[in-house]
Amino acid sequence: MRSQPFRVLIIDDSDLAREGIRTILASDPTFEVVAEGQCGEEAVELTGTWMPDIILMDIQMPGIGGLEATKRVKDNFPYVKIVMVTVSDDITHLFDALKRGAQGYLLKHLNPESWHEYLRAIAVDEAPMNRELAFRILKEFSTGEQTNTTESPLTTREREILGLVAEGLSNRDISLRLRISENTVKNHLKNILQKLHLENRVQLTRYAYEQGWMGKW
Q1: From the CB of residue 95, how many other CB atoms can be counted at a distance below 10 Å?
Q2: Are 133 and 103 in contact (CB under 8 A)?
């Protein structure tokens, strides 16, 4: 179990929004806010200075904005997990952020308990993907017929788990579906990510589609 809190950087041009986010995180010792910024440029600069584990990033801000800032941060600091924080559930913006490397998104009106649970899942790579978002990813990344190659390094069980991840199932859902422990699912996912040299569920969804493994299990 991690002994140190996850270091969080808050990026939002609204003073009120930053204060609200800071208050939510202060009630959970799992997280520590190390710095705050008001624009995308500061997101890149402060990430290099503070080396946070997680960035909570607003989408629409002055300057380069949250989407471009996300891309620049991930290009320079790929280990950092970025969660978009917005008042809008416009899936187009959220989808664009995920394509640029973000790991997830939170709506500002959600209750604090939902924030804590979701961010803890993001921090340890366990957050499930919204099913509508998964469908959009498949549609966006589809560039022709599925390859359905036999050259994959994954085992049959790993392909099965990957297909379920791409359909939006959480680790717990997968464990119940396959009647295996949640820890077993986590270990399988670690192996899958390492074998495929991928970083997150968005990339796994694209890979599963390209291999033709969607909806087979």
Answers
A1: 20
A2: no
Q: Report the alpha-carbon distance of residue 14 to residue 8 in Å, rounded.
A: 17
Domain boundary (93, 124, 155) is at 124
Torsion of CA 175, 178, 183, 188, to 10 degrees: -120
Q: How many domains does the chain have?
A: 2
Q: Is residue 216 part of a domain?
A: no
pLDDT at 147: 46
Query: Using CA atoms, how far apart are residues 66 and 173, in angstroms rounded to an integer?
Result: 32
DSSP string computed for 121-141: HHHTT-PPPPHHHHHHHHHHH
Tell me the pLDDT tens digit for each residue of 44-77: 999 999 999 999 999 989 899 999 999 999 989 9
**Is pTM beyond 0.90 here?**
no
Helix (H) or strand (E) holding 82: strand 81-86
Q: For 5, which DSSP code?
A: P
Q: Is 5 exposed, middle or buried (0-12, 13-18, 19+ CB in 10 A)?
A: middle
Tokens of 72: 């620049």
Can you tell me the distance from the alpha carbon of 142 to that of 154, in angstroms, rounded to the nearest whole number?
21
Domain boundary among 98, 124, 150: 124
- Residues 6 or more apart whose CB falls under 8 angstroms from that of 186 comprise 126, 171
